Amino acid sequence: MNRVWWMPPNGALHGWAIDRLMWVNLTALGICLVFAHLLLAAALLRRKRHQVSSGILRWEVLPLFGFCCLYLWLAITAQRLWAANRFEGPSPAAMQVEVVGMQFQWYFRYPGPDATFGEVRPRLVDAADGNPLGLDPRDPRGADDIVTSVLVVPAGREIDLRLRALDVIHGFFIPGMRLKQNAVPGLVLHLHFTPEVEGAYPILCSQVCGSGHARMQAKLKVVSPAAYKAWSATLKHR
Ligand SMILES: [Cu+2]
Predict the structure, then answer these.
(1) Fewer Cβ atoms within 10 Å of its own Cβ: the N or the C terminal residue of the chain?
(2) Cα 101 to averaged position of ligand 1 atoms, centre (Å)
(3) How many helical (H) and strand (E) elements, i.e. helices and strands, does the chain have?
(4) Transmembrane region positions (predicted)?
């Protein structure tokens, strides 16, 4: 597929189905567009010759019925994909990572060896002091939490993201993973995906969230499980 006008290369397990659906949608609707214009031209030409219109069933009811079937089919296939991505939860073995958006930065928190996130308190948020998420030092579960500005994940493992926002609505968007979800202050929203293809993918903010919106970018690195293990061993717990 030509990358100049198509989406960036997909790296997620569910992305192939989304790309295929997108392609089928564009093709089907493109054919409809051409067909509608041909029909319009034919109707105009015919009208000049025969003043009396005829064939309502053939020219109106049948095409409309065809369009209804097409749209219904597109809606059902899209709904199935959406449900698999949003209504069905991640597997219990999925790796947990918290994503926090704030003006104008994404932070990622790993729960550490205890697999449990520590408590956070808004009044403890102090990026200058090295505590951008407001981790409570009195909570022992947070002692092994790791906060990073790069999202590093192992390829082939399902990732369960919990999205939060500290100030305004941000849009967590990874085009290469076919993922987009708003991060809303006061809500914890989950998003799960399985990265398949190793590489670096830009993470963007898709909601205009202030003057620094355009530079609110981060990076997702999909690495081999061994490289992920090595990377996480180098991190300091906060
Ligand atoms: Cu933002």
Answers:
(1) N
(2) 7
(3) 4, 10
(4) 20-45, 57-76
